[in-house]
Amino acid sequence: MKDSSQNFFIKTIAFIFITLSANSYAASVSVKHPYARAVPEGQPNSATFMVLKNNTDKDRALVNAKSNVSNFVELHTHRKEGGMMRMRRVKKIDIKANSKTVLKPGGLHVMFIGLKHGLNQGDIVPLELFFDNNETVKLSVPVKVVKGMKHKKQHK
Prior knowledge:
The chain is of the alpha+beta class. The chain has one domain: PCu(A)C copper chaperone (Immunoglobulin-like), CATH 2.60.40. It is 16% helix and 48% strand. It is built from 1 helix and 10 strands. The protein has one helix at residues 2-26, and strands spanning 29-37, 45-54, 60-66, 70-81, 84-89, 93-95, 100-103, 109-115, 124-131, 136-144. Strands 1, 2, 3, 4, 5, 6, 7, 8, 9 and 10 form a 10-stranded mixed sheet that branches. A hairpin with a 4-residue loop joins β9 and β10. The protein is globular, with a radius of gyration of 20 Å.
């Protein structure tokens, strides 16, 4: 009986330790206020915006993203080139230690390229974010109409 009690105790302590370790690891980067830009059927691309908060004392980076709503998902930014703002793919999005990085229209964002269907306000987009420490965050991102961008059905 004593061996059985000790075995149960050891397994319980191990389970608690593993659970706490997994939770603290998963919390190294938290995601706040994610949303995807609504676009009508026929539009080829859209984007997702959010705040990435690094809860550690080490720099982190978002290095990839995946979703089933488009053929490709890329990390992007806007840069001024030749007097015009142009969207450009980036290899990673840095999140400095104990700080946040804001992904917003006209700046850094996650780009959906080759949408498989329109994105309407109220839809939910599944999105996985991959970080440089092998952490993955799975999100259910609400679709919203972004102020200043029209979401009208196209007439032919």
